[in-house]
Design goal:
This protein is of the alpha/beta class. The chain is built from 11 helices and 6 strands. The chain has a 6-stranded mixed β-sheet, with helices on both faces. Strand 1 and strand 2 form a beta hairpin.
Length: 241
Amino acid sequence: MEEFYLFLDESKPNSNFNNFTLGGVAIEKSIYESVIKPEINKIKNAYFGSDDVILHEIDIRNKKGDFSNLTHDVEIQFFEAMRNLFQKKVFTALAVTINIHELEKLYIEKARNDIYYIALQLLLENYAHFLVSNNGFGSIYLESTDPMSDRKLQNLYYTLMATGTLFFKKEFLQERLTTINFNFKKDNLIGLQIADFIPNALARNALNKKQKPNSLYFEIRDILYDGMIGKRNRFGCKEIS
């Protein structure tokens, strides 16, 4: 079996967004090492002068931190380079986006499961389906936030591994899924930096909001996992509204 990594990022609800979105990219290990990492480092060096820079979409768009001196032209060129990488279809996007306001109308807060539990369960099912379709097994990587939040998400993951999900038995999940890992931003993990570009575009689409300039939405849409039967809205980006 082939080994895969699933790199995940999240987009939380705020005054402009009703959706909680958990999403990212699944990449086969050998492709990640031989293609993705060198290509992203090449892009970093070309547009930011160093591969030590940590790509973060909102900082790039807002010209903050390492991107404070970024010119408009270089920003456009950077997004075009990222677009070209996405168009190579060397990784697959998976996501879940949940409209919090609609969820609250249907299920009172004290009665419903944690939003992470809902999203993670749906995402794990689709990742497991993807692994079967690609004769693989895989692990999951997220950016560490704080010890309490990391532990909470880790506990949710192992709860699902111990009980199974709606469609998959626990024995099957344990056969296909390995570990959940939390990395710091300073670790400069390339996969997490690619995943950073996934949730916002999908949340905007789910809410019928206009995409940001130089958006990668159409490239993301085209690499959403379709379950091998053309159903991206079920297996690629599951929308709960």
